[in-house]
């Protein structure tokens, strides 16, 4: 019997069933039909007043999450951690971070989600652990300790190890000297995040065991953090000077990575009904397919960065945006499956990067981007707060930042005599902390996030942009999000249907169709703050308008600023 038959029943009762003959669809999977809502627990809701979000806080908002219509939650790491990188430095994979609560809280969270027809995907951080993990304590204690081979060490009598770039280190040096055993250990991220040695079968078995620990609790999936970097060439070749500008070419998909994933599949994934996704999809379509094509028995869906990376501090080209998403869609039209997203906890806010966060256009442009995410082929991943149209905070003072990468990069800039004003101006736009300010629940102090002092400043625009205000406004970004989610859930064509780009060279409007079993939808999105038209071969005279982010009649091929319209043809 399917484990989640009852979730499907509840979901069908809540949202109605699909308007198509679902029997004809090949390769139907619940995770393809999922709508993932990503929760950053540190910033979602604080229940105990210590200024840090917690599991009880999430529990108190489960009805809200259910009201969104989403059916999967991806939770950023909640394991024990000294929090050098907000939980991405795990010191005990089988326990809950004190700031977040207890295992009993976790169990209630999981059952509360399942009761509401929502599945839970956990973040699995096993490219590295914390330096405070017992494995690392043992590993560094002596060269002969049984845990030595759980990490990568280079003995100092052999000279300096070949340069490896670190993303978060103050000196960008991924080898950290440890005098205790006169050796260097490898850390692609911060010094407190030593990389695990996947070549060691014992380490791999430990990881499979801890994955089973969570799967046996009944969780529904794993997002594998930074896993494309997990395998290394441990002959440690010299990389060409300047390789760090394109480090992913040298770090991603190395060694026996696919072998490890196939083993993980055998040991874990094949035994449970899990949704699996790794952060990053290598450097080519071939890499991405090798991760997710179902005949290979590795992962379920690719999470590629080319789309989300398009928006730089100077903006992005709409033509290029269309080209990238169309190219990825066509590369996955016949096998494999994609994730569709424009934001996560490592990015500034979606509306600030891809839309327009000025008061005049914040709401409509958020809604337009939401329409895009909910009408593409691939599983939508939606970051908490974007359903309110939350915006970047843009800190200008380094003391406001909390992110290890921002703080260490600033220190690097200071030490190397860089222009700090220019550095801070850029950081204000690009920082991950923009996406990590607390969720804005209402207009009370701290946006209703905490009764204490928040661990990071709340965006002062919480007095107008908040859940309570949007709840009572039928035309809010929040209520539009719910409509868009409902629309996707009502039409399997929006999940599985073929995608075709229209009016390709239009520099302002993104127009496409989705089609399945004779059901055809047309999506028109104006990415500009001025009216724009599109050129379509077929007219819209007989089309039925299903969704529009403007009141009043749609004007067909002439779109208002950031207008989004979904038609059934
Ligand atoms: C991933 C996470 C990011 C974290 C890094 C190191 O990129 O998404 O938040 O800092 O891995 O774990």
Structure description:
β7 and β8 (183-186) form a beta hairpin. It contains 17 helices and 19 strands. The strands form 5 sheets. A 7-stranded parallel β-sheet has the order 10-9-5-2-1-12-11, with helices on one face. The protein has a 5-stranded antiparallel β-sheet with strand order 13-14-15-19-17. A 3-stranded antiparallel β-sheet has the order 6-8-7, with no helix packed on it. With 569 residues, the protein is of the alpha/beta class. Helix content is 29%, strand content 14%. The protein has helices at 5-15, 55-60, 62-68, 103-115, 134-141, 201-217, 247-251, 257-267, 285-292, 318-331, 350-354, 362-375, 404-415, 420-430, 467-471, 477-490, 492-496; strands at residues 36-39, 72-75, 79-80, 92-96, 119-124, 153-155, 175-178, 183-186, 221-224, 275-278, 339-340, 379-383, 498-502, 509-516, 519-526, 532-533, 544-548, 558-559, 564-568.
Features:
single chain; 569 residues; 5-stranded antiparallel sheet; 19 strands; binds alpha-D-glucopyranose
Largest sheet descriptor: 7 strands, parallel
Distance between the termini: 38 Å
Q: Main sheet: which strands, in order across?
A: 10-9-5-2-1-12-11
Contiguous uncertain segments of 5+ residues: none
Ions, cofactors and other bound molecules:
alpha-D-glucopyranose
Structural class by SSE content: alpha/beta
Count of DSSP-assigned helices: 17
Shape: globular
Level of helix content? 25-40%
Arithmetic mean pLDDT? 95
* Rg result: 24 Å
Counted beta strands: 19
Which percent range describes the beta-strand content? 5-15%
